Amino acid sequence: MDAADEQRPSETPSMQADAASSHGDLRDLIPRPFADRDTVIVAPAESLNTAWQRMREHDISQLPVMDGERIVGMLDESDVLLHVYGDEARFADPVSAAMVARLDKVDVHAPIEALLPVFDRGHVAIVMDGQSFLGLITRIDLLNYLRRRMG
What we know:
By secondary structure, the chain is of the alpha+beta class. The chain contains five helices and five strands, in the order H-H-E-E-H-E-H-E-E-H. The strands form two sheets. It has a three-stranded mixed beta sheet with strand order 3-4-5. A two-stranded antiparallel sheet has the order 1-2.
């Protein structure tokens, strides 16, 4: 993910209400947990047009690509743009044709500092508990978390 394609602030009402609750790990930084079905996702076989519409509808710049319960890739605005530029008919192509399959996964129990190299590479952190996808953390999410801790 390019640094310019950072997910927009994604603080949800449930996150605001749960700000006082704490897991004591990286789950505390995930604004839209996958287990709560709050994460906006796309499937590899869905069209790029569907993915783009979903991004616009939810005001986000990237989507995890899920095959059932398993994360298989990420798709951001740059991936879509690079795939369709010069041939708009390619919006009909499947997400799998444009997604990035090399993922920056971070264990849920890793320290917050483990996010910094991921962000330095311009990526979004994909938080995992073993093989289970928990959600995404962006730079904005980390900043929101740090700001909330200030009180």
